[in-house]
Protein backbone atom coordinates (compact mmCIF):
# COMPACT_ATOMS: atom_id res chain seq x y z
CA UNK A 1 0.00 0.00 0.00
CA UNK A 2 2.82 2.42 0.90
CA UNK A 3 4.60 1.61 -2.37
CA UNK A 4 1.43 2.27 -4.36
CA UNK A 5 0.86 5.64 -2.64
CA UNK A 6 4.47 6.55 -3.33
CA UNK A 7 4.03 5.72 -7.02
CA UNK A 8 0.83 7.79 -7.18
CA UNK A 9 2.65 10.73 -5.61
CA UNK A 10 5.56 10.44 -8.06
CA UNK A 11 3.21 10.24 -11.02
CA UNK A 12 1.40 13.40 -9.88
CA UNK A 13 4.69 15.25 -9.49
CA UNK A 14 5.82 14.15 -12.94
CA UNK A 15 2.58 15.29 -14.54
CA UNK A 16 2.79 18.71 -12.85
CA UNK A 17 6.39 19.17 -13.95
CA UNK A 18 7.62 19.46 -10.35
CA UNK A 19 9.61 16.30 -10.75
CA UNK A 20 11.46 15.09 -13.84
CA UNK A 21 12.14 11.40 -13.74
CA UNK A 22 14.96 9.95 -15.81
CA UNK A 23 13.98 8.05 -18.89
CA UNK A 24 15.20 4.86 -17.27
CA UNK A 25 15.16 3.78 -13.66
CA UNK A 26 18.10 1.42 -13.64
CA UNK A 27 21.58 2.68 -12.79
CA UNK A 28 23.32 1.08 -15.76
CA UNK A 29 20.93 2.53 -18.33
CA UNK A 30 20.86 5.92 -16.60
CA UNK A 31 24.65 6.03 -16.73
CA UNK A 32 24.47 5.47 -20.48
CA UNK A 33 21.92 8.25 -20.99
CA UNK A 34 22.32 11.28 -18.67
CA UNK A 35 19.56 13.88 -18.88
CA UNK A 36 20.44 17.21 -20.54
CA UNK A 37 20.74 20.27 -18.31
CA UNK A 38 17.57 22.29 -17.91
CA UNK A 39 19.41 25.38 -19.13
CA UNK A 40 20.54 23.77 -22.35
CA UNK A 41 19.23 25.25 -25.56
CA UNK A 42 16.71 23.31 -27.63
CA UNK A 43 19.39 22.66 -30.24
CA UNK A 44 21.69 21.21 -27.56
CA UNK A 45 18.80 19.11 -26.26
CA UNK A 46 18.05 17.82 -29.74
CA UNK A 47 21.70 16.91 -30.23
CA UNK A 48 21.76 15.07 -26.90
CA UNK A 49 18.55 13.17 -27.64
CA UNK A 50 19.80 12.25 -31.10
CA UNK A 51 23.04 10.84 -29.71
CA UNK A 52 21.12 8.82 -27.14
CA UNK A 53 18.71 7.58 -29.76
CA UNK A 54 21.22 6.00 -32.11
CA UNK A 55 20.52 2.59 -30.65
CA UNK A 56 16.81 3.22 -31.18
CA UNK A 57 17.19 3.69 -34.91
CA UNK A 58 16.55 -0.02 -35.23
CA UNK A 59 12.93 -1.13 -34.67
CA UNK A 60 11.91 -0.26 -31.13
CA UNK A 61 10.29 -3.62 -30.54
CA UNK A 62 13.08 -5.96 -31.58
CA UNK A 63 13.13 -9.30 -29.75
CA UNK A 64 15.84 -8.12 -27.38
CA UNK A 65 18.46 -5.48 -26.83
CA UNK A 66 21.60 -7.29 -27.88
CA UNK A 67 24.07 -5.11 -26.00
CA UNK A 68 22.22 -5.38 -22.71
CA UNK A 69 20.50 -8.73 -23.08
CA UNK A 70 17.09 -7.23 -22.29
CA UNK A 71 14.13 -9.24 -23.54
CA UNK A 72 11.13 -7.32 -24.82
CA UNK A 73 7.95 -7.65 -22.76
CA UNK A 74 4.90 -8.00 -25.00
CA UNK A 75 1.78 -5.91 -24.25
CA UNK A 76 -0.23 -8.96 -23.22
CA UNK A 77 2.49 -9.97 -20.74
CA UNK A 78 2.94 -6.56 -19.11
CA UNK A 79 2.07 -6.24 -15.42
CA UNK A 80 0.25 -3.02 -14.54
CA UNK A 81 -0.79 -1.39 -11.28
CA UNK A 82 -4.50 -0.78 -11.95
CA UNK A 83 -4.87 1.78 -9.17
CA UNK A 84 -1.95 3.79 -10.47
CA UNK A 85 -3.24 3.41 -14.03
CA UNK A 86 -6.53 4.96 -12.94
CA UNK A 87 -4.89 7.94 -11.26
CA UNK A 88 -5.48 11.43 -12.66
CA UNK A 89 -1.78 11.94 -13.34
CA UNK A 90 -1.47 8.83 -15.49
CA UNK A 91 -4.79 9.36 -17.27
CA UNK A 92 -3.84 12.96 -18.06
CA UNK A 93 -0.51 11.69 -19.36
CA UNK A 94 -2.20 9.13 -21.60
CA UNK A 95 -4.52 11.79 -22.99
CA UNK A 96 -1.50 13.97 -23.73
CA UNK A 97 0.33 11.15 -25.55
CA UNK A 98 -2.74 10.45 -27.67
CA UNK A 99 -2.92 14.16 -28.47
CA UNK A 100 0.74 14.16 -29.53
CA UNK A 101 0.02 11.29 -31.88
CA UNK A 102 -3.04 13.04 -33.33
CA UNK A 103 -1.06 16.25 -33.81
CA UNK A 104 1.66 14.36 -35.67
CA UNK A 105 -0.92 12.70 -37.92
CA UNK A 106 -2.58 16.05 -38.67
CA UNK A 107 0.77 17.66 -39.45
CA UNK A 108 1.68 14.74 -41.70
CA UNK A 109 -1.56 15.26 -43.64
CA UNK A 110 -0.77 18.96 -44.03
CA UNK A 111 2.69 18.08 -45.28
CA UNK A 112 1.25 15.76 -47.94
CA UNK A 113 -0.73 18.72 -49.29
CA UNK A 114 2.22 21.11 -49.15
CA UNK A 115 5.59 19.36 -49.09
CA UNK A 116 7.41 22.71 -48.96
CA UNK A 117 5.68 23.99 -45.82
CA UNK A 118 7.73 25.21 -42.87
CA UNK A 119 7.40 22.31 -40.43
CA UNK A 120 9.87 23.27 -37.71
CA UNK A 121 7.81 25.98 -35.94
CA UNK A 122 4.84 23.62 -35.73
CA UNK A 123 6.98 20.71 -34.51
CA UNK A 124 8.49 22.88 -31.79
CA UNK A 125 5.06 24.14 -30.77
CA UNK A 126 3.30 20.77 -30.72
CA UNK A 127 6.16 18.66 -29.33
CA UNK A 128 7.67 20.41 -26.33
CA UNK A 129 10.48 18.04 -25.34
CA UNK A 130 10.26 18.59 -21.59
CA UNK A 131 6.49 18.06 -21.52
CA UNK A 132 6.63 15.08 -23.88
CA UNK A 133 9.36 13.39 -21.84
CA UNK A 134 7.49 13.98 -18.57
CA UNK A 135 4.25 12.59 -19.99
CA UNK A 136 6.04 9.50 -21.29
CA UNK A 137 7.75 8.94 -17.94
CA UNK A 138 4.48 9.43 -16.05
CA UNK A 139 2.44 6.89 -17.99
CA UNK A 140 5.11 4.19 -17.77
CA UNK A 141 5.24 4.26 -13.96
CA UNK A 142 2.28 1.85 -13.96
CA UNK A 143 4.40 -1.08 -15.15
CA UNK A 144 6.58 -3.58 -13.31
CA UNK A 145 10.35 -3.18 -13.51
CA UNK A 146 10.78 -5.78 -16.26
CA UNK A 147 8.19 -4.14 -18.51
CA UNK A 148 9.76 -0.74 -17.92
CA UNK A 149 12.93 -2.00 -19.57
CA UNK A 150 10.84 -2.26 -22.73
CA UNK A 151 8.88 0.98 -22.30
CA UNK A 152 12.11 2.87 -21.57
CA UNK A 153 13.28 1.82 -25.02
CA UNK A 154 9.98 3.02 -26.47
CA UNK A 155 10.46 6.43 -24.84
CA UNK A 156 13.87 6.73 -26.44
CA UNK A 157 12.46 5.75 -29.83
CA UNK A 158 9.73 8.41 -29.69
CA UNK A 159 12.08 11.19 -28.59
CA UNK A 160 14.53 10.15 -31.29
CA UNK A 161 11.76 10.16 -33.91
CA UNK A 162 10.77 13.73 -33.05
CA UNK A 163 14.42 14.81 -33.15
CA UNK A 164 14.98 13.26 -36.57
CA UNK A 165 11.67 14.59 -37.89
CA UNK A 166 12.80 18.11 -37.06
CA UNK A 167 16.23 17.52 -38.56
CA UNK A 168 14.71 16.08 -41.74
CA UNK A 169 12.37 19.07 -42.01
CA UNK A 170 15.12 21.66 -42.31
CA UNK A 171 15.44 23.61 -45.55
CA UNK A 172 18.78 25.25 -46.31
CA UNK A 173 18.90 29.02 -46.40
CA UNK A 174 18.00 30.26 -49.83
CA UNK A 175 16.08 27.12 -50.78
CA UNK A 176 12.31 27.19 -51.15
CA UNK A 177 11.56 23.62 -52.19
CA UNK A 178 12.39 20.18 -50.84
CA UNK A 179 13.86 17.58 -53.14
CA UNK A 180 12.01 14.26 -53.57
CA UNK A 181 14.67 12.67 -51.35
CA UNK A 182 14.05 15.17 -48.54
CA UNK A 183 10.30 14.75 -48.86
CA UNK A 184 10.64 10.97 -48.54
CA UNK A 185 12.84 11.39 -45.47
CA UNK A 186 10.27 13.58 -43.73
CA UNK A 187 7.53 11.09 -44.59
CA UNK A 188 9.67 8.27 -43.18
CA UNK A 189 9.98 9.94 -39.77
CA UNK A 190 6.29 10.82 -39.64
CA UNK A 191 5.50 7.14 -40.25
CA UNK A 192 7.98 5.89 -37.66
CA UNK A 193 6.76 8.34 -35.03
CA UNK A 194 3.17 7.21 -35.53
CA UNK A 195 4.18 3.54 -35.30
CA UNK A 196 6.19 4.04 -32.12
CA UNK A 197 3.32 5.93 -30.48
CA UNK A 198 0.97 3.10 -31.50
CA UNK A 199 3.33 0.43 -30.15
CA UNK A 200 3.58 2.15 -26.76
CA UNK A 201 -0.16 2.81 -26.50
CA UNK A 202 -0.80 -0.89 -27.18
CA UNK A 203 0.37 -1.53 -23.60
CA UNK A 204 -2.66 0.35 -22.27
CA UNK A 205 -5.37 -1.43 -24.25
TrEMBL record:
Signal peptide coordinates: 1-20
Domain of life of the organism encoding this protein: Eukaryota
Presence of the UniProt keyword Signal in the record: yes
Keywords, in A-Z order: Signal
The protein, known as: Uncharacterized protein
Amino acid sequence: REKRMSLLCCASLLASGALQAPVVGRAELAARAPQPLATASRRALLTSIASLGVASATPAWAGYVTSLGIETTKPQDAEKDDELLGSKAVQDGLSAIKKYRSSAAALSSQFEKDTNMNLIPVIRKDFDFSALRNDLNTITTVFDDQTQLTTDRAIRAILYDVTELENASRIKKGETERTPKKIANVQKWFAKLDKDFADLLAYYQ
